[in-house]
Amino acid sequence: MLETVHVAILFGAGLVAVSIFTSLLSMRVGAPLLLVFLLMGLVAGEDGLVGVNFDNAPLAYFIGSLALAVILFDSGFGTPIKSFRLAAGPALTLATVGVMLTACLLGVAAHFVMDLPWPQAFLLGAIVSSTDAAAVFFLLRVGGMKLRDRVKSLLEIESGSNDPMAVFLTILLAEVALSGQGFASLDWTLALTVAQQLGIGLVGGFLGGRAMLMLMRRVRLEPMLFPLTVISLALTLFGAVSVVGGSGFLAVYVAGVVAGNADMPNAPTLKRFQAGVTWLAQIVMFLTLGLLATPSQFGAVAVPAIVLAVVLILVARPLAVWLVLLPFKFTGRETLFAAWVGLRGAVSILLAIVPMVAGMEGGQDLFNIAFIIVLVSLVVQGWSIRPVARKLGMMVPSRSGLVERFELELPDEARHELVVYRVSADAAVATGHRVPRWARPSLVVREGRSMTWRQAGKLRAKDYVYIFINPRYVPLLDRLFAKPEGPDLSDTAFFGDFPLAPSATIIDVATTYGLPTPPGLDTTRTLAETFERVFEGRAAPGDRIPIGYAEIIVREVDDEGRLASLGLGLEPQKPASWVLPGWLARIVAPLNRLRGPRYRGS
């Protein structure tokens, strides 16, 4: 018995370690890390090199659910509340209506491609209908891409909140398929069940997050026990909400948002701990689901599964996204990019276990099909997100040269951070600009030697400077120590050729630069008021309004959402080179006219 335990520990810990080291190689070739972890599970499984026979579907579902709850809590904890101000409406609509549309469209395709009965076909559609939070958050946050704020907020909120709808549809359709009566077994309680899942999840998550804050502000714990307690409370909330009939996944995400946007004690320690635990949860979840799969069975369903994956990527997801975002004035580029970032991942594989656990005939085939669809999604979409984002103009040039940033735990309401810069050769301080008193470094590291600011004298390129500063001054430090960075993008190209004051009016700009006044706008309003009205108070860097052959572009927005600076671009971005088929364009033309003037959002 003891020997078996030791072997299990050796195998489990060794597999996690090997997966982590393998990720170093994947970064060199640009492979999505989550795909690497999934493939490592396949390699270790019964058809792989190690040959471990793991077929415990209930245990895999338990491990996956636990890991997903941890991931969603951390995802919510790291989502700023301003993201909801930018994209809550379209994101939540996409997370509900979009999931149902995707499930229906893929279900129709599955019925005709694989000749599945309608309940099983729609069940397969529901299984792969939601985007994967782990995959999306990893690629958009850890992957180092800096996207336009509204698009990033849309994708993050959608991926963090669409799992409840997919879980509900999967369980519901599994019951329909098992009943033997088809859709005749459905009644009016369907809508009530949906409302119960979402309602209890939202309310339970909000109340749970507030309770978590109140409790952690009152208790005095050892610093290292604090993050353990928070994670334990989050998992307790997940279980409690699930037991009373709500969506535990939605509850932990909402609780994370509530706790992460408040003054949580020991927040810096908590964030670092959660980052490590979330990585471990992702690795364990993908490895477990990879172990559960049997690649030797894939051959029987490989061709139709790949066909369905193509339909999902190129038809079902884009059409659902386009229909859902139609009322929200997203541009063609933004809609196309949102459709492309529809990565399927561990959630789809996790839901594919449900038919197996329920003993459904053909459940193993549904699992294998879902697994192949996830592999195709991670390979095709995961590998291409960065070039697609660059091609569609969704990437924003980095305006920060920060190397590292550390939050400090200070008494009372004091807020300071330790920020580290590597001085750029083109930075203001390296070309003779005086360092203001408030920005003087506490430490300078030059060629491996540490010294005070006075000892260092004039700062040089490649110096590392360490500064204690209030976080709101970091954008000012960027102007002193760094230069804009970003592949094939520059500040001028993206943020305009000439600076404009938010207090200027459109007629002032048009007269000064010899531009025609745009139709449908009050030209006597200030630029700030115009952007406020056009973008409904949610303007973000990169948003633009056309004015003749030029564009007025948002450069900076302050912490309160007010426009800080604007730019005038004389070479507007070209529109996306994609159009709807003629017959579909004629059908939706009346809907397009309802949207009014088209402005380029971020």
TrEMBL record:
Q: Which organism is it from?
A: Caenispirillum salinarum AK4
Q: Name one Pfam family in it.
A: Na_H_Exchanger
May I have one GO cellular component term?
plasma membrane
Q: Under which name does UniProt file this protein?
A: Na+/H+ antiporter
Q: Where does this chain mainly localize? A: membrane
The protein's topology relative to the membrane is: Multi-pass membrane protein
Which NCBIfam families does this UniProt record tie to the protein?
A: PRK05326.1-1 (NF003714), PRK05326.1-2 (NF003715), PRK05326.1-3 (NF003716)
| GO BP field | proton transmembrane transport
Transmembrane helix keyword on record: yes
Gene3D superfamilies found in the cross-reference section: 1.20.1530.20
Query: What Gene Ontology terms describe what this protein does at the molecular function level?
Result: antiporter activity
Where is this protein localized, as stated in its record?
A: Cell membrane
Q: Which domain of life is it from?
A: Bacteria
Which key words are in the record?
Antiport, Cell membrane, Ion transport, Membrane, Transmembrane, Transmembrane helix, Transport
Q: Where is the Cation/H+ exchanger transmembrane domain?
A: 18-390
